[in-house]
Amino acid sequence: MIKLSSIHQNHLVLNCRCEHVGHISVQDLIEVYGGDVDVDAIERAARCSKFKGKSISSVQIIYVGGSFEAMHTSHTPKDSKDW
Q1: How would you label 35-58 residue by residue, b for 16+ Cβ within 10 Å and e otherwise?
Q2: What is the per-residue pLDDT across 8-44, written as a single tens digit (0 to 9) for each?
Q3: Longest dimension (CA), the chain
């Protein structure tokens, strides 16, 4: 279970079975539901904003920030020759 508070700087992308894609900031979700809610609960409760159905097929966590921050949090050296 991934708690919203652990990914507070990211966004969620919700993909509906109707092929509509929704995008929301995790910080906005935390303001409404709190940081102790997990991503699975958001997926179960989400409704498609296009046709209002509960048909979310998948959720993606999208990192927001520059590559330096991504590399820093993954503990990958900038000059790594392994990639």
Answers
A1: eebebeebeeebebeeeeeeebee
A2: 999 999 999 999 999 999 999 999 999 999 999 999 9
A3: 48
- Domain assignment present for 79: no
Pairing relation of β-strands 56-62 and 11-16? antiparallel
Q: Which amino acid is at 72?
A: H
Domain membership of residue 46 (yes or no) is yes
- 64-66-72-78 Cα dihedral, nearest 10 degrees: 150
Q: Indicate whether 25 belongs to any domain.
A: yes
Domain-located, residue 42: yes
